[in-house]
Amino acid sequence: MGGTMDGTKQQRRRGNTRQRIQDVALELFAEQGYEKTSLREIAESLDVTKAALYYHFKTKEEILVSIFEDLSRPMEDLIAWAREQPHTLETKQEIIRRYSEALAGAAPLFRFMQENQATVRDLRIGEMFKTRMLGLRDSLIDPEADLVDQVRCVSALFTLHAGMFVLRDLEGDPEEQRAAVLEVATDLVTQAHRGSSGA
Predict the structure, then answer these.
(1) What span, in angstroms and rounded, lies between the C-alpha atoms of 68 and 182?
(2) In the chain, at which end, N or C, are there fewer CB atoms within 10 A of the end residue's CB?
(3) Does residue 199 sit in helix, strand or coil?
(4) Domain HTH tetR-type, which positions (predicted)?
(5) Sign of CA dihedral 62, 67, 70, 75
(6) CB-neighbour burial class of residue 167 (10 A; exposed 0-12, middle 13-18, buried 19+)
(7) What is the CA radius of gyration of the chain?
(8) Alpha carbon distance 63, 13 (integer Å)
(9) What is the sign of the dihedral through the CA atoms of 169, 172, 178 and 181?
(10) How many CB atoms lie within 10 A of CB 149?
(11) pTM flag (> 0.85)
(12) C-alpha–C-alpha distance, residues 41 and 164, integer Å
């Protein structure tokens, strides 16, 4: 990762008020919980008036939905791409690889969702996330696959999710950990594909 590119990206995000609101809100939601965070606190952390915040977002949920939509766009693109592809093993392995990248890019959001499951379930993003997960699942599962292979495909997705949280507590290089999780998830779809194709 080149420091200069990161710096430029940070500046671009800093210059964009809407994104600054999203970043600060997600930080506060993660630190003190969604319920305990007020719009006033978000405005204070940004050093803007509540009216300035209102110009972009009327409610906390609007902020959270916008964060979810922005950070989960790669997931949507991936589902759209997968629908156009043949149901080959290569396609499935590529779906897992790209999903692993999408999760890494949206790590703060997924951590928040994991740690605030009850809140997420009651908000619109719970339903949005479920829809996306079903889309991904359908792109991995062969309709004629037996139950064990269907479970393997779904488990591959959850392996990537679990990897984000479980590995944080383990020693070692995060990139190596991500690669190990990706390998296990890829093994699962490979095994499932072999099972359903009778190979």
Answers:
(1) 23
(2) N
(3) coil
(4) 15-75
(5) negative
(6) middle
(7) 19
(8) 16
(9) negative
(10) 21
(11) no
(12) 28
